[in-house]
Amino acid sequence: MGYKAKLKNIIQQFNQLKETAMNQIKAIRESQNYTSEYKDQLISIAKEDTIKHQNSIAKEALEIIEAAKNEILKGKTAAEKDQSFDLKLNNALKVLEMVGSDMTIEDLKNLIDPFKEDYHTMKILRSIFIKGGIKGIDEIFGCDTIDHRVSKLDELDRYIEQTFNGDIEIVNTMKLSICLDMMID
């Protein structure tokens, strides 16, 4: 089962928890056996009990997202860096700073080529190209779907934090479901 299917299952669990909690809260509010102060206390106790389940569900969802990120980034670890790597990188950064916008795409490719095996360095260099308005980003770096997928998982992570840790009476999983449906499995 892919991470999307697992997360959809967790959203269903959360919606069932919400429905159960809402029915319990509704029954307390409609009861004629309690004073309004005691109803507020019972509702508060019901919400506290629900929060424990919400936290458990959120933790499980966040673990699935972390595993998905690790799977995407598998093999994209930092390359071994020695003094020559650092020296080459410093020289390349200085060249980019001084004459990067005047260089040809082929020269820029040759300048960046020694770092192509290091995912994190390439990610930083790509952002330097973008901020510096240096031409040839697509030709040199290509379309990096890994960064896009990881950023979408980070966005999903934030939605889960907001959704699963909110007040059970007002929380809505629609935005979370839409975000999940638009992602690649």
Walk me through the structure.
The protein is an all-alpha fold. The chain has two domains: 108 residues, no CATH class; 63 residues, no CATH class. It is 75% helix and 0% strand. It is built from eight helices and no strands. Helix 1 runs antiparallel to helix 2 and helix 1 runs antiparallel to helix 8. 14% of the residues are buried. The model has no long low-confidence stretch (mean pLDDT 85).
Chain-wise SSE layout:
Blueprint: H1 3-30, H2 36-73, H3 83-99, H4 105-112, H5 119-132, H6 137-141, H7 145-164, H8 174-181
Helix pairs in contact: 1-2, 1-8, 2-7, 7-8
Number of strands: 0
What is the number of independent domains? 2
Q: Tell me the radius of gyration.
A: 25 Å
Count of alpha and pi helical runs: 8
Structural class: mainly alpha
N-to-C series of helices and strands? HHHHHHHH
As residue ranges, the low-confidence spans are none
Strand content: under 5%
Mean pLDDT: 85
Helix content: over 70%
Brief sketch in words of this structure:
By secondary structure, this protein is mostly helical. The chain is built from eight helices and no strands.
Summary keywords:
185 residues; mainly alpha; 0% strand; elongated
